[in-house]
Specification:
Number of helices: 2
Strand order of the largest sheet: 3-2-1-6-5-4
Shape: globular
Radius of gyration: 14 Å
Largest sheet: 6 strands, mixed
Distance between the termini: 23 Å
Strand content: 25-35%
Helix content: 25-40%
């Protein structure tokens, strides 16, 4: 990615693994639809550069700013977003028991928020 890149940026980001791949969670800026400073979960990661300065997801490229420190828990807003997104994804799977999915979501969000889900 060159210095003239004018697409979205992620700050305070972390890689997380969901059931169907690896994603980025972070605070977005310069995104055409998602606003400034909102916590987001990207579409699945397709590629990341070796220096962790940029990532290509299924839907777009992101410039990666500072990662969220692995030893620090993510803020509550990010954890709530992950819980909602994980639950949404689980509920769309055929034959999923919603109550079991909710328990699994809480467990996965705890792993991710505290850095233990870091790849």
């Amino acid at each position: 990615m060159d210095d003239d890149f004018d697409g979205p940026e992620l700050d305070g980001w972390r890689v997380m693994e969901l059931m169907d791949g690896f994603y980025l969670v972070g605070r977005v800026s310069r995104h055409p639809y998602l606003g400034e400073g909102n916590w987001i979960i990207t579409s699945p990661i397709v590629d990341m550069d070796a220096g962790l300065r940029s990532a290509k997801t299924m839907n777009r490229y992101y410039r990666l700013l500072e990662p969220w420190p692995v030893q620090e828990a993510l803020p509550e807003g990010a954890v709530e977003l992950m819980e909602l997104e994980l639950l949404r994804r689980m509920e769309t799977q055929p034959g999923v028991d919603v109550e079991v999915a909710k328990m699994r979501v809480r467990y996965l969000a705890e792993l991710i928020c505290c850095g233990r889900g870091q790849s």
